[in-house]
Amino acid sequence: MIDKKTTIIENAIKLFAAKGYHSTSIQEIADASGIAKGTLYNYFESKDDVMLSVLKYYSGMIMAEVEKIANDPSLTPKEVFWRQIHYQLDECVKHRDFIEMHIREYAVPVNEEINDFLFSIRSYRIQWLSNCFRAVYGKEIEPFVLDLATMMNGILREYLEYIILDKKQFDTIKLTKYIINRMDNLVKALRNSGEYFLEHSDLVDFLKNG
């Protein structure tokens, strides 16, 4: 059974996607959840707090499924990586309206707690991608693993903007295969050249100062 706080969060996601963050009122969220406005404040301090909870809920759902895929003993590291990427692309398609609102409207207000959370998500993605590359391609890619994670993150972000902002109807299975194949090419090229740009200390500084 879904608890009341989760119900409010899920209703807020629908309203933010349909109307935008700034155009949605606390009263509307309460009405959609079948509760009084005052009751909503028993769960959230403000609309900013609702948005922070929405972001935590959505990212937590993604992370839980990514971890579930990683723990499947029947999959090879390459299959795990493939399924994790495909799952995330599919989820972004399903929640296209909410993500578009977030991108176009800068839906998150200037709020230190929210900014800190968004930074933690960015940090998580870079570290997760780095670990995926290590698992799939071996420890010898360590010198340029941060470059690979950075490039992969950028590639995913740009394709997602085609899907979300430009309304492109991509086959996510085909797109996943294409991206993974390009990563194979990049890894091979970097192994052959021995070149790298970012160093481990750059990641440490990023995590410390972001």
How would you briefly describe this protein structure?
The chain is mainly alpha-helical and 210 residues long. 75% of the residues lie in helices and 0% in strands.
Q: What percent of the residues sit in helical stretches (DSSP H or I)?
A: over 70%
Main sheet makeup? none
User: What structural class is derived from the secondary structure elements?
Assistant: mainly alpha
Strand residue content: under 5%
Task: Return the average pLDDT rounded to an integer.
Answer: 89
- Poorly predicted runs are none
Order of helices and strands: HHHHHHHHHH
- For the termini, the CA-CA separation is 38 Å
Q: What report would you give on this structure?
A:
This protein is mostly helical and 210 residues long. It has a domain at 75-209. It contains ten helices and no strands. α5 packs across α9 (172-193), α7 (112-137) crosses α8 (145-164) and α8 packs antiparallel against α9 (172-193).
Give short descriptive properties of this protein.
DNA binding, mainly alpha, DNA-bd_HTH_TetR-type_CS, 75% helix, 210 residues
Secondary structure: elements and pairs:
Layout: H1 4-19, H2 26-32, H3 37-40, H4 47-70, H5 77-94, H6 96-105, H7 112-137, H8 145-164, H9 172-193, H10 200-209
